[in-house]
Amino acid sequence: MAQSTMTREKEGQRSVAVVGGGLVGSLQASLLAKRGFNVNLYESRADIRSMTHVSGRSINLALSTRGREALKAVGLEATVLQDAIPMYSRMIHSVSGSTSTQPYGTKEQCIYSVDRRRLNEQLLTLAESHDNVSLHFSHKLTRADFTKCSLEFSTPNESFTVATEFVFGCDGAYSTLRRQMMRYGRLNYEQEYIEHGYKELCLPPLPDGDYALPPNHLHIWPRNEFMMIALPNTDHSFTVTLFMPFLTFENIRNEFELLTFFEEHFPDSLDILGRDNLTKEFFSNPTGQVISVKCYPHFLGGCAVLLGDAAHAVVPFYGQGMNAGFEDCLIFYELLLAAPQDDIVQAAQCYSDTHWRDCHAIADLSKYNYLEMRSHVNSRWFLLLKTMDSILHWLLPRVFIPLYSMVAFSRIPYHQVVLRSQRQRRLITIAMVTSGVSVLVCVVCVAMERSGAYNSLRYRILPCVAGCVLKDFYQQVTGSS
Ligand code: FAD
Ligand code: EGU
């Protein structure tokens, strides 16, 4: 095919390339098309819409506000939500099999379980529906030359180079474009594999065809070092994701060891998963690895920007990877709208100067939650923490917004979410210390009053000293001088 001439910049028309036709790349293509750009999207895999089986990562994902807002911008939100299952609360499963639920917020505040493949297909079809978008499947980026802004692709039959005005790297956590940028210029890069791997298991519907668990919840089995999460599918199955250290995976070598492990840690799930089904799923499905990536800057070489996992792969312990990637696209789009004549370089510069903080913040938040979940969070502790959150929010609805709620149900920039949650935490500490000290002072005063000690001058100085100490403490925690 004369791909290279076809994709070259047409006279007077601005042509850009999107590398990666995953969730983020296919959304980005539609947003750019809306701004009138001529878009060429290159995806290394074949067209998933014509495949019977797609290998790869998680089957379903939690979609929340940030992702929805981006889908709304391309008019796809309603379509996606039609096939999505709302989850209004978490359902926490303890080892004993007891469950408790906690709402995420109001009725409107719910997250949605969406099928990754279907969402990707809908996004590709939408991108393709624009006449200024061309999709190129089985095109793998191999090299990039930023001085000429040219890209080298290999297809099953040939390899060739195309020149473009600008390129968006949406090629995921193991991004080739990012590696090319690192080769070209001063790109800081940091990656970390966590100790945990994950295994996806299908939890089939009951024999009568019904869901095996109540469908409108995010199901969680928190067990410190091990954790299991289940999200509903439209076909009445659930996709269960088991997170545990790679070493533990390696130590489960046969059916007996697997069933013993489940009897001990997740006994309530055994009957619904089914022993045979569990064994089959566990030993035939691959163990996934989880990488966390940070880099800076996201705009380099004057013609390339990284979006989505390519810029910031986060561990999945906030359910934000896709949501954050979609928000990247939306933010870039908003900056493009604000730039004169859709000046892509200006938008990219502004994007790069401001948005990296938020990317780093969600990577940190996700990793922090991973550490917290594995360190001391069993089902009881998880319940307690989340109940505290909702009580505080109920008491102080404006002042205290739970962290997860700012992450999942707002578009407050992630780095502001972090600052705000730190302020909230200080406030709570102060409130707790104050009430604790007040109670103590009252008890002491009453005791003194009774014993007559209060008449002594020495004890009248005590409250003054206590006051000074307290004032100091306040200044410490509030950070004021
Ligand atoms: P990808 O989805 O990885 O897409 C990259 C695309 O680029 C792929 O199609 C790939 O084939 C293509 N590509 C790669 N290299 C090249 C190349 N050289 N040339 C051309 N094309 C190339 N996020 C959520 O928001 N909610 C969740 O509940 C959630 N759960 C998760 C659970 C797990 C277990 C994991 C691992 C992740 C989860 N995520 C979740 C994160 C989410 O999967 C990712 O953030 C999201 O897929 C990122 O999309 P992307 O388009 O940037 O990258
Ligand atoms: C992990 C894997 C519960 C899908 C974080 C909550 C996740 C998801 C939570 C996966 C948890 C953890 C939140 C949402 C969501 C909770 C959240 C995590 C979807 C703090 C398919 N997490 N996830 N927090 O609040 O904000 O219910 O694989 F167990 S959705 Cl780890 Cl809101």
Structure notes:
By secondary structure, the chain is an alpha/beta fold. Helix content is 46%, strand content 22%. It contains 16 helices and 19 strands. It has helices at 3-7, 23-34, 65-73, 77-82, 116-128, 176-184, 246-251, 255-265, 267-273, 275-284, 321-338, 344-376, 379-395, 403-409, 414-451, 457-478, and strands spanning 15-19, 38-42, 60-63, 85-87, 89-93, 99-103, 111-115, 133-136, 140-145, 150-154, 159-163, 166-169, 188-203, 217-223, 226-232, 238-245, 288-296, 299-300, 304-306. The strands form four sheets. Strands 6-5-14-15-16-13-17 form a seven-stranded mixed sheet. A hairpin with a 5-residue loop joins strand 5 and strand 6 (99-103). Helix 15 (414-451) runs antiparallel to helix 16 (457-478). It is globular, with a radius of gyration of 26 Å. Bound molecules: flavin-adenine dinucleotide and ligand EGU. Residues 58, 62, 90, 111, 218, 220, 229, 231, 241, 316-319, 369, 373, 404, 407-408 line the site of ligand EGU.
